[in-house]
Amino acid sequence: MTVGEKIFKTEGSEGNFETSKATCSQAGGLLASPRNSAENSAIQQIAARHKKLPFLGINDIQTEGTFRHLNGEALGYSNWASNEPNNSEGIEDCVEVHSSGNWNDRSCAEKRLIICEY
């Protein structure tokens, strides 16, 4: 799916956060990281087609509570669900997209749909 300058694509496979990043990198892309609502909507639609939740290329591994893109860039756009991010049990450093398009922080060890951007 193309939005502006970006192409979002999945092969339907799943992986934890590190596997997802590596898979996209090996394919010449990055783990999908929406910069606006149109990009978030594209990711949401791809996920809905596969009936799976994807990880985004966003986390707060470096500084708890400060979510950033993989390149370290601060978030200019976010779409958190109500009462999120909540760092439940102190282990939620990665971000998944719910079927509503809203974001939830989640453990990076979980397996999620891999969606890359090019």
Automatic annotation (TrEMBL):
InterPro entries referenced in this protein's UniProt entry, alphabetically: C-type_lectin-like (IPR001304), C-type_lectin-like/link_sf (IPR016186), C-type_lectin_CS (IPR018378), CLec_Tetranectin-domain (IPR051663), CTDL_fold (IPR016187)
GO MF entry, a single one: growth factor activity
Domain C-type lectin as annotated: residue spans: 16-117
Record-linked Pfam families: Lectin_C
Main localization of the protein described in the UniProt heading: secreted
PROSITE patterns the record matches: C_TYPE_LECTIN_1 (PS00615), C_TYPE_LECTIN_2 (PS50041)
Keyword NADP in record: no
Superkingdom of origin organism: Eukaryota
Entry keyword set: Disulfide bond, Lectin, Secreted, Signal
Tagged with keyword Secreted: yes
GO biological process: ossification
Protein name: Surfactant protein D
GO CC terms of this entry: extracellular space
SUPFAM superfamilies referenced in this protein's UniProt entry, alphabetically: C-type lectin-like (SSF56436)
Compartments (UniProt record): Secreted
